[in-house]
Amino acid sequence: MRINLSSMRLKPQRGLTAREFILLALLIIAIEGYFIISYILVPAYDSYVSATEDLKMREDVLTELKRDFVRKSAMEEEIKKAEEKLAVIQEQLPPYVSQEEVIFFLEDVSYLSGLTIQSIAFHDTDELPLTVLPPEGTGEKVYTGAAPTPVIVEQKIGINFMGNYQQLYDFLDNVESSFRKVCMKSMTMQKNNEGLLNGVLTLSFTSYWDDHEGRKPYVMVPTPTPGKASLFDEYTGYSTSAQAPVEVQKPAAKPDFYITLNSYLNNSAKIFMMNYYKSGSEAIEDKNEIVNARMTLNEVNGQYTFSYSLGAYDIVEDSPTEIKDGKIRMEVLVQPRQSDQDRVGLVLDITNNTSVPFEITVKGDDPSNPRFITGQTSGSVVVR
Question: Under 8 Å CB-to-CB from 369, ≥6 apart: which residues?
Fold first, then answer.
C-alpha cells in the first residue's frame, strides 16, 4: 500500500500563550516555595528556637553555678555548722540505746552522787507515736501513728537504789543536767531502820533512728587491766616464803579533777572534764578534733580556787577540795584510737598559782600519738 504524503495536510500545534506560560511558571515557583518552606526553612527555624531555648537554659545554669561558686566558702561554713548541730542532736538523741551505754551512764552519775545502785532492770522498748505535720496549704490531714521510719524508741530502765536524801538529790540532778536526754518516769521509796532511803526509780532513755542511719551499736574499748598469768601466783603484800611480809601500799588518793577522752565512735561526749567533788562542774566537747582547754589554780589565805574552760563551758568555783598529801590531783582517762579518722584530742594549758604541785596522771594514752597534750604551763605541774 502506498501512501501519498503530499496529499496529507498536517495541522501545526499551537504554542503556549503568554498568559499560560506565566501561570505555569507561578505554579512551579509555588510548588518549589512550598517544599523549601516545609522541608528547609521550618525545620531550620524550629532548630533555631530549640537551640535558643537550650542556650538560655544553659546560661541560667551557668549563672547559678557562678553564684554558688561565689558562695562556696559560705555554703561550706553553713554545712559545717549544720553538721555540728546535727552531731549535738545525735549526741542528745542517738539512733540506738544500748545496755552498755546505760550501764556506764548510771555508773558515772551514781559515782558522782554517792548513791548506791543495787540492781538495774531493762524493760521492753516501746515505739512512740510519731506525728507527721503536712506541708502548709496542702489541706492534707495530720497523721499520728506508728511510722515505719523514722522511729522514736523509748527504753525504760528500772533501778533499785539506796542512799541518803542528798545523794538521791545529787543523782537526779546529775541525770537531769546530763547532756544525754534522760527523764524520770516514776519513783517509789521508803526509809529503812538505818535512816537511809530504799526505793525503785524508773528512767526513760529515748532514741531516734531511720533507715538512713540504721541502728548504730554502742562502741567502747575498755582500757586493758593488768592481771596475773595464774590464779595461784603470789599477789602484792603476801608471800608463802619465810621472808618478811611485804607492806601493802594504801590506796591512792582520789583525784580532785578528771578528764575523759573517748573514741570518736563513742556515743557519749568525746571530751568530759569536771571537778570530782562538785556536781554541776561538768564541761564537755563533742568534736572529732584536737581542742584547747585552760585550767587555772589559785590560792588565797589557804583557800584554793579553780577555773577551767572547755568549748562553750567556763567553770569557776571556790574552795574545790582539801589538799591531800600535799598535792592537787587530776586523772586523765583515755580510750585507744580506733582508726586514722579518730582525731579526738585535748591540749590543756595550766596555770598553777598555788604553793602545792599539780599532779596529772594519764591512763591509757598512746605515747606515739597521744590524745592528751599539755600546752603552756606555769607553776608546779607534774605529768605522770
Answer: 337
The distance of Cα 244 from the centroid of its chain, to the nearest Å, equals 57
Q: d(Cα 357, Cα 4) in Å, to the nearest integer?
A: 153
202 and 274 in a single domain? The answer is no
Give me the DSSP letters along 65-82. Answer: HHHHHHTHHHHHHHHHHH
The whole domain housing 163 covers 93-133+142-209
Q: How many domains does the chain have?
A: 2
Give the separation between CA 74 and CA 302, rounded to whole angstroms. Answer: 52
- In contact, 308 and 273? CB cutoff 8 Å: yes
Q: Is the dihedral of CA 88, 91, 92, 94 positive or negative?
A: positive
Beta-ladder partners of 122: 157
Is it the case that residue 174 has pLDDT exceeding 80? Answer: yes
Range among 26-35, 260-269, 351-360 rated most confident? 351-360
pLDDT at 219: 44
Q: Cell 564541761 identifies what position? A: 283
What is the spatial distance between Cα 278 and Cα 256, in angstroms, rounded to a whole number? 9
Q: Is the pLDDT of residue 144 over 60?
A: no
**Rg of the Cα trace of the chain?**
42
Nine-digit cell at 127? 515505739
Strands across the sheet containing 313-318: 313-318, 303-310, 290-300, 345-352, 372-378
pLDDT band at 132; cut points 50, 70, 90: low
C-alpha cell recorded at residue 62: 551557668
In a domain, 314, yes or no: yes
How do residues 244-275 score in pLDDT, each as one tens digit? 544 544 555 678 888 989 888 776 678 888 88
* Distance linking the first and last C-alpha atoms of the chain: 145
Phi, psi for 343 (deg, rounded to 5): -115, 15
- Of the candidates 176, 179, 159, the one whose C-alpha atom is nearest the C-alpha of residue 116 is 159
The CA-CA-CA angle for residues 61, 65, 69, to 5°, reads: 175
Pairing of strands 358-363, 345-352: unpaired
Whether 216 maps to a domain, the answer reads no
In a domain, 226, yes or no: no
Q: How far apart are CA 161 and CA 202, in angstroms?
A: 11
Residue recorded with cell 525503785: 200
